[in-house]
Amino acid sequence: MPATSPDFPARLRAAGLRPTRQRVALARLLFEGGPRHVTAEGLHVEVKASRMPVSLATVYNALNQFRDAGLLREVVVAPGRSYFDTNTGHHHHFFIEPDGELHDFPSDKVTIAGLPTPPKGTRVARVDVIVRVRR
Amino acid sequence: MPATSPDFPARLRAAGLRPTRQRVALARLLFEGGPRHVTAEGLHVEVKASRMPVSLATVYNALNQFRDAGLLREVVVAPGRSYFDTNTGHHHHFFIEPDGELHDFPSDKVTIAGLPTPPKGTRVARVDVIVRVRR
DNA sequence: GCAGTGTTTAGAATAGTTCTAAACTTCTTG
DNA sequence: CAAGAAGTTTAGAACTATTCTAAACACTGC
Question: Do residue B131 and residue A121 have CB atoms under 8 angstroms apart?
Fold first, then answer.
């Protein structure tokens, strides 16, 4: 039983987005089932194979809109490789360098102490921790 | 007085790179003076204006080689924006979101506790902390 | 159902980076 | 210090990831 309602049209509407068929199809792929990390290309391949194909431009648009609406979080791990993470809660990442795999880990056990105060006139938006590992 | 010798040909040779005029010119821009963060484009603009212009392809080649040789460290903060950092010691970054500015901060005061053990068969290569701040 | 506005689409455009192959340096050896 | 071998540079083409364009289409409110 998912923590959040599987009524995707309602969830999109709540986020201020019209529940078009394309967005609903993408939301289903993204949020049905466990948390995931996707790239635009990867999601496009998936949705192309589905009953409701969606153009690549729309996949990009939707991912950007979902991120802006707080439904997704963008994680940049390598140049020219942007992942979207359906887990928007506080957590950090393992990045497995050779294969480009990304794994979440919860941040509740992790404490970061001794961070300097941010530059004048700025406030902290987020702290990203990426643990890069190799085989 | 720089901590490391300003004899760039020697430093390049020590890193296993032929000290060509182009690489020496780039090394001078990068390592003479304080630590810096550059993008390929930015460094290309700089070196084009110098006495020893260098093509963009060579700037890319040199940055990649310098990074592979451990002379530079690559920092990925935003999709399609790769910075090279002349500071290769242990430290982390502030990223000022609106203007894309990057600032170092030393890691000696920072402690990260409670990191989970890495996935089986892997070892930690590096832990990156990026503190994203907004105005 | 019918506007009216927002969305989707294919394809072109753009940005950043890497590739190619010919010309040119640098290094080694005699 | 000349000659050859090997590594490097270059302009431009190619490539990858992403965004833009403008015409067709679909969701919403009346």
Answer: no
Strand D contacts in A 69-88 (CB under 7 A): 80-82
Rounded distance, CA B88 to CA B70, Å? Answer: 7
Instruction: Give yes or no for a contact between A49 and A5, defined as CB atoms under 8 angstroms apart.
Output: no
Digit-coded pLDDT (tens) for A19-52: 999 999 999 999 999 999 999 999 999 999 999 9
**Residues in Cβ contact with A68 at an 8 Å cutoff, skipping those fewer than 6 apart:** none
The CATH class of the B8-83 domain is: mainly alpha
Stretch (H or E) spanning A134: strand A123-134
- Please, are residues B131 and B95 in contact by the beta-carbon 8 Å criterion? yes
CA angle B133, B134, B135 (to 5 degrees): 135
Which of these, B38, B45, B51, lies nearest to B100 by C-alpha position?
A: B38
Cross-chain residue pair A79–B82, CB shorter than 8 Å: yes
Q: Where are the domains of chain B?
A: 8-83, 88-133
pLDDT tens across B48-61, in order?
A: 999 999 999 999 99
